Amino acid sequence: MSITSAIVLYAVLWFVTFLTVIPFKLTTQGDIGVVTPGTQAGAPHEHNLKKKAWITSAIAATLWIIIVVIIYTETITVRDLDWFNRMPPLSEAHGTDG
Question: What is the pTM of this model?
Answer without folding.
Answer: 0.74
